[in-house]
Amino acid sequence: MDGPFFSRRAVLLTPLVLAAGCEREPKGPKKARFVIGMSQCNLGEPWRVQMNADIAAAAKEHPGIEVVFKDAQNDTLKQRAHVEELVAAKVDVLFVSPKEAQPLTEPIGKAFDAGLPVLVLDRAVLGERYTTFIGADNKKIGRAAGEWTKKVLGGKGKVVELKGLMTSTPGQDRSAGFREALAGSEIEIAFEADMKWLEPEARKEMDSALARLPKIDLVYAHNDPGAHGAYLAARAAGREKEMKFVGIDALPHEGVSYVEQGILDATFQYPTGGREAVDTALRILKGESVPKTITLGSRRFTKDDVKKGGERIE
Q1: Greatest CA separation found in the chain?
Q2: Residue 261: is it exposed, middle or buried by C-beta count within 10 angstroms (0-12/13-18/19+)?
Q3: Nearest to 107 by CA among 89, 93, 131, 87
Q4: Which one of 145, 232, 239, 309 is most buried, counting C-beta atoms within 10 A?
C-alpha cells in the first residue's frame, strides 16, 4: 500500500481507517495524501501538453498531492468513461478539460451532485453543476485579435478564419469575438473552416483556401498550431509573404517563438490555468470557499512588443 489514502471528508472530519491486510504506519506525524483526477480531452495539442505539465509542476510542490492523468485522445465517449472511472476511484478533486460542452455536462454534473469538487478547465460545460470554472475570456481574446486585424489591415481586406472545434466553447467564443470586432469594417471573411485545433487539419484547409482565393490579406487561426499550419501551406505555395498570420495560445516555445522568428505576426496568450487549478484544489481541501469562475488574463505578442513580454489585453 503506497501510504494512506485520505478522502477530503476523512482528512477533515475523521481519523483514517486502514484497509485489512495493510500494515499500520508507525505512530507520529502523518502527511495527508490527496488524489486529484485530471481528465484531459487530448494531448495532440501542445497547449494541452503544457496544461498537464503545469498541473504536474504545481502539484509537485506539495508532497501530499498526487495527480492521476487521463488522456481521452480526442474521443468524447472515452472522456466520459474517464470521468466515471475517476469518480469511482474516489479521487478527492476532479479536474476536467472537456472536449465538447454538451456530452461532458451530465457526467460532470453527476460527480458534482454527489459532493465531489469538480474544476472545469478551459472549455465550459452547460449549466453550473460544477465547483469552479477556470479559463481566460475567449470572446475577449477573439475581439482583441479582431481589433488588431482591423488596425493592421486598415479596415479592409480578405481574411481566412481557421476555427477550433466549433462544438467547444473556446472555438465558438474566439470566432464570435473576432467577428464582433470586424463588424462595420470592410474586412471580409472570405474562407472559413473548422480545423479542430490540429495543425495538419489547418494546413489541409489552408490549401483549399489558397486554391480558391487569389488574394488573402490575413489568416486568423484559433490556435498557434493552426496558424503555423496555414503558414506552412502558404509557404509551400510561395504565397506566405502576401499575408499576415495570427494565432492564439502564445506558449513560449511555440507561438511566442513563431513571432520572434517572423512566422506569425501576432499571437494572443491563452494561459493553461494549471497552476491556478492546483491552488484552487488546495483551498477546497482546506475547507475554504472558492469562486464559481476564475478568469485568467491575456497578453498580445507582436514583433514590436515580444521582447518586452507582450502587451496586456485590457
Answers
A1: 77
A2: exposed
A3: 87
A4: 145
Q: How far apart are CA 135 and CA 138, in angstroms?
A: 8
Residue-wise pLDDT tens digits, 282-301: 999 999 999 999 999 999 99
d(CA 78, CA 213): 39
Distance (Å, whole) CA 82 – CA 106: 13
DSSP 186-212: EEEEEEEEE-TT-HHHHHHHHHHHHHH
* C-alpha cell at position 154: 486598415
Q: Name every residue whose Cβ is closer than 8 Å to that of residue 32 and which is 6 or more positions away in sequence.
A: 6, 11, 64
* pLDDT per position as a tens digit, 235-257: 999 999 999 999 999 999 999 99
Please name which of 168, 145, 137 lies closest in space to residue 296, comparing C-alpha atoms: 137
First-to-last C-alpha distance (Å) of the chain: 50
CB 41 within 8 A of CB 97: yes
If pLDDT is split at 50, 70 and 90, which confidence band does 2 have? very low
